[in-house]
Each structure stands twice: as structure tokens, then as C-alpha cells.
Design brief:
CATH class of the largest domain in chain B: Alpha Beta
Structural class of chain B: alpha+beta
Distance between the termini of chain B: 103 Å
Number of strands of chain B: 4
Number of domains of chain A: 2
Number of strands of chain A: 5
CATH superfamily of the largest domain in chain B: General secretion pathway protein M, EpsM
Order of helices and strands of chain A: HHEEEHEEH
Strand order of the largest sheet of chain B: 1-2-4-3
Number of helices of chain B: 7
CATH class of the largest domain in chain A: Alpha Beta
Number of helices of chain A: 4
Largest sheet of chain A: 5 strands, antiparallel
CATH architecture of the largest domain in chain B: 2-Layer Sandwich
Oligomer: heterodimer
Shape of chain B: rod-shaped
Strand content of chain B: 15-25%
Order of helices and strands of chain B: HHHHHEEHEEH
Chain lengths: ~200, ~210
């Protein structure tokens, strides 16, 4: 190589070689290494964020699937009970009127209780059924009514006879379940006991 | 060229004239390039350049491309997930009206009172006089009257065979003497209290 009027000395050649290597390295760093690192770091951070988001989405999907399965399971049974939105007292009273009909009865409506979205409407009913099968019918109609109702304590007494055609006195407590989802608060609604805890 | 250089160094003998008529001064002092060294060296340099490009540039750009593809694939998964969530629509509201998740364990385990009443109708009433029964939680108490304790015990054994019954026992038994009429002898009967432990509904379903 003879650019000048003389050859480069070995020292100059070494310096030029180092300079070339430095320039190539600089160009590599500037145009390859730095953009690649930036892109990789950006991709990694996006991936990490998406992983968190994906987990949340998958969890939500799993939860919704579980909900759907539970709904399918509940609605596939013979007796489907639905928790109506608060306040369903009017419909409950209508139901009780239909179920107890012309029997002698006494109903005590307790204050509703609330735990989260779950509302419980507790009632105590005393009635006299003309026979045992009528008492069974009352229990069945309450339990399998369109509104979810669970009967708790039942005490039943009848004439000391072997036959089923005696008057049957019944005292029972039952709970009608309602939900705050879709419901409207009113002054009869107590504070949330679950939130108070 | 190597030959010329050799000749150049040869001492020209007297009486003989050099054959060469021109001298290229431009080539003076230039070292000859040996192909046997230059070609492998060039190949080595090219190979090094290719290797460097492959490892330091192409592979790294491919890594970036791979990472970006992974991000895009993950983004698609997230989008699909949101699409599926959207397909469920108002499920959460519907679920709130059907779920049993807000109920307590005691409520979920509570034996069906209708089943209990039917069992009494089927097992007790045809065989014994029953003056009262009550149920609290999963414990049923029956007050029955039979002609003998043996008769009551048979009913207890029958009750134990029922699907909804876990265990049952006679807790008290007392005799009664009832005069039917003045002419007849008093009729002796036994009144007993039977306690029946019912199977938890959840346990029954699991079994």
C-alpha cells in the first residue's frame, strides 16, 4: 500500500488497523448492537406485560367458563330456582298467599340480612294443614318455587292417630334468597355484614 | 518477476550486455505477493467477515424478529381471550341469579325437607302413630307410638335403610296404658322418641 510517496511504517499500519477495527466496531454498535438491544428490551418488556395480561384474561375466561358450567348444571335440573333481584318481597307474599291458600296461618317476616350481594329474607310460618299430604305439598311448593327458598327448622304435630287425615300443625322457618345484582337499594336494606367484617 | 529480481542481483559479466532494455522503477522495492499466502488469507478474512455477519448481525436480527413474533403471538392470544370474554356477554349478571356460591356450608349441606316429609309419610305413618316430628339442621326427631318397642325398633331399622339417613336411634321409650272403654282391659302402648341423623347433601352428592 503506497498512498503517500513512501510505504506506511509498521507502527502506522498497526494504528490504521486499530482505527479501522474501532470504526467498524463503532458502526456495528451504532447501527446493529444498539437497535437490536433496544428492540429486544422492548420486546421483553412487552412480553412480560402481555404475560401478566394473558394470565388475567385466562383466569377471567376460566372463571366465566366455570360460571357457565354452574349455570348449565343448575338449569339442567328439574327444579330451577332463581334468586331474584332485591326487593322481591311483593312476589314472595303473593307466593305465600298462593301456597297457604285457605289454611289458617300466621307469618312473621323478619328483617332481611345482607352479606355481599346475597340477601336473605327470613320468614316464620305457622299453619294448620287439613292433612299430612297438604303439609307435604306446602313444603314442596315452597322448596321448589321459582324463587330460591330453603326451609330450615320444621316442627309438625298432629293428632295421635295412625291415619293421615288429621289436622297437622306446622311451624317452620324458611329463607328466600335474593341478590343485589340488578337490585335497587331501599331503606329496608341493611348494611353489608360481609363488608363490615 | 522473481526471475527478474534474481537476474537483477546477478553480476553482469564483462563483454556481455544486459538483455533487458527497460527498467520499471515503479516496481522497484515492491515485495511480490505470493498467491499461496494471499488466497488463504483473503479466504480467511472473508470467512471471518461472514462469520461475524452471521453471529453478530444476522443471528441477532433473527433474535429480534423471533422476540417480536412471540410478542405478536401473545398479543393475538390476549385479543382472542378478550373476544371470548366478550362472547360471554351478560353471564356475570345471569350467574348472580343462579349461583349457590353465596350460601353457607350449612345451607348447602341441609337435607331437603320435602324428602324428609316424604320419608316420614312412606316409612313411619303406615306403621306407627306419629304425634310430632321436628327437624333442625340435619337432625330429625320423631315422637311415635307403637304397640311394642319391637315394632318401633323395626321402623328404626327400616329408617336406617333410607338413602338420606346416616344414623338413627331410639332416645327414649315409655309405656302408656290407655283404657279404651270401661268394659275392656287397658291397652298398653309404647311411646318413643327417635333421633335421626340425616346425610349432608354435599356429602351425599359426593358419595
Amino acid at each position: 500500500m503506497k498512498i503517500l510517496s513512501r510505504d506506511f511504517t509498521t507502527q502506522e499500519k498497526v494504528i490504521l488497523l486499530i482505527l479501522c477495527i474501532f470504526l467498524v466496531g463503532l458502526a456495528y454498535y451504532q447501527f446493529v448492537d444498539k437497535p437490536v438491544r433496544t428492540s429486544l428490551a422492548r420486546a421483553e418488556s412487552e412480553k412480560a406485560a402481555l404475560e401478566v395480561e394473558l394470565q388475567a384474561v385466562q383466569a377471567k375466561n376460566a372463571q366465566l367458563k366455570k360460571m357457565q358450567d354452574e349455570i348449565n348444571q343448575v338449569t339442567s335440573g328439574d327444579a330451577v330456582s332463581v334468586m331474584p333481584s332485591y326487593n322481591n318481597s311483593k312476589a314472595v307474599i303473593t307466593l305465600l298467599d298462593e301456597v297457604l291458600g285457605s289454611m289458617k296461618y300466621s307469618i312473621n317476616f323478619s328483617n332481611v340480612t345482607r352479606s355481599g350481594d346475597q340477601i336473605r329474607r327470613n320468614i316464620s310460618v305457622s299453619f294448620t294443614a287439613p292433612n299430612y299430604s297438604t303439609m307435604e305439598t306446602v313444603l314442596e311448593r315452597l322448596t321448589h318455587s321459582e324463587f330460591r327458598c330453603l326451609i330450615d327448622n320444621v316442627s309438625c304435630s298432629r293428632g295421635n292417630a295412625r291415619y293421615t287425615n288429621d289436622l297437622v300443625s306446622v311451624n317452620l322457618t324458611a329463607t328466600f334468597y335474593e341478590t343485589m345484582v340488578g337490585g335497587t337499594s331501599d331503606s329496608g336494606l341493611p348494611s353489608d355484614s360481609a363488608a363490615a367484617r | 518477476m522473481a526471475k527478474n529480481a534474481a537476474k537483477k542481483n546477478k553480476k553482469i559479466s564483462r563483454g556481455r550486455l544486459p538483455v533487458k532494455t527497460s527498467i520499471n522503477l515503479a516496481g522497484l522495492g515492491e515485495k511480490p505477493i505470493r498467491a499461496s499466502i494471499a488466497v488463504p488469507a483473503i479466504l480467511l478474512i472473508v470467512l471471518a467477515a461472514v462469520m461475524f455477519s452471521k453471529v453478530a448481525v444476522v443471528d441477532r436480527l433473527l433474535a429480534v424478529s423471533r422476540a417480536e413474533n412471540e410478542v405478536r403471538a401473545m398479543q393475538r392470544q390476549v385479543d382472542d381471550g378478550y373476544k371470548r370474554i366478550a362472547e360471554y356477554g351478560e353471564l356475570t349478571d345471569t350467574y348472580a341469579h343462579y349461583t349457590y356460591s353465596g350460601m353457607t356450608t350449612e345451607e348447602l349441606q341441609r337435607a331437603d325437607r320435602v324428602e324428609v316429609a316424604k320419608m316420614i309419610d312412606r316409612v313411619i305413618l303406615p306403621q306407627l302413630n306419629m304425634s310430632a316430628w321436628s327437624i333442625t339442621g340435619n337432625q330429625l326427631t320423631l315422637t311415635v307410638t307403637g304397640e311394642t318397642l319391637e315394632e318401633i325398633n323395626k321402623v328404626v331399622e327400616h329408617l336406617k335403610q333410607e338413602d338420606i339417613v346416616d344414623f338413627c336411634k331410639v332416645t327414649t321409650a315409655t309405656t302408656n296404658e290407655t283404657a279404651v272403654s270401661a268394659d275392656e282391659l287397658p291397652v298398653s302402648t309404647v311411646t318413643a322418641r327417635i333421633t335421626v341423623y340425616l346425610i349432608d347433601v354435599l356429602e351425599g352428592n359426593a358419595g
